[in-house]
Amino acid sequence: MAKITASVYTSHVPAIGAALDLGKSHEPYWQPVFAGYDNSRQWLRENRPDVIFLVYNDHATAFSLELIPTFAIGCAAEFKPADEGWGPRPVPTVVGHPELAAHIAQSVIQDDFDLTIVNKMDVDHGLTVPLSLMCGALDPARDRWPCAIIPFAVNVVQYPVPSGRRCFMLGQAIRRAVESFDQPLNVQIWGTGGMSHQLQGARAGLINREWDNAFLERLIADPEGLSKMPHVDYVREAGSEGIELVMWLIARGAMADVAGGPAPTVRHRFYHVPASNTAVGHLILENH
Ligand code: DHB
Ligand code: FE
Fold first, then answer.
1. Reported ipTM
2. Any idea where the domains of the chain sit in the sequence?
3. Is 142 helix (H, G, I), strand (E, B) or coil?
4. 272 counts as catalytic
5. Among 3.40.830.10, 3.40.50.300, 3.30.479.10, 1.10.10.10, what is the CATH number of 3-286?
6. Pocket test for ligand 1, best of 123, 156, 278, 280 (most atoms within 8 A of CB)
7. What is the rounded CA–CA span in Å between residue 192 and residue 250?
8. pLDDT tens-place string over residues 26-84
9. Best substitution site from 58, 195, 241 to test ligand 1's pocket, by max atoms within 8 Å of Cβ?
10. CA atoms within 13 A on the CB side of 265
11. Which of ligand 1's atoms lies nearest the C-alpha of 11?
């Protein structure tokens, strides 16, 4: 039986990827951001999973207004880093896990969640920046990401986006799917995007430190209650792009306590403002 051993939550600011790729991570502006992940990189080396189920959002890179899946599961053997306008990031190709991905698609769709199956897809900063933060700089000519990765894309770009409640329930279905896979795999689930930020309009630059920290508290201690928060609260309090945070509820819903198990251990918590236009939030929760 496969098992979800931990969940990781992190922002995905594209400028963080650029800072790493251009060798700027030690500059005074970026140093405190990367320092917040030092423990996490060590933790991932010590707690290396077989597979990361990586919940993220595509930013009109692989998808566009022509095609908008609400939930899309990457079932391919590999996923290339996307060209977002400056050439693909110099990071390794993502190696998938087609067998587990196909099993999760089968199980979750039979569990009444409609997923789009994706057999070819490039992955943008939404997926590669969280990996870079957790793994550090890697040379694509020589290095690999530490394990297989199943990309799971959520539409948080074009309304209507899925509710927090639906994301939380989907996480529970993903846990059931993983636990019914008959190979003894160690699986982590990552929820990415957020925290407060708004990139457009009159409130561009909005950050809400107090609200973000209350979100982190509730994500740890009251995820079910948090999942009932309506979209308008995210957008009003955390900005138009703060809605990316609903993806964290998918990862949180997959943790053991939600199904009656013991509360997770908070292994690491970090919050920093600013990184580009965004408040960076990060959490690691371990199952027992
Ligand atoms: C920024 C943040 C994002 O989540 C994103 O997708 C693009 C840009 C930013 O802070 O610049
Ligand atoms: Fe984003």
1. 0.98
2. 3-286
3. coil
4. no
5. 3.40.830.10
6. 278
7. 10
8. 999 999 999 999 999 999 999 999 999 999 999 999 999 999 999 999 999 999 999 99
9. 241
10. 6
11. 4
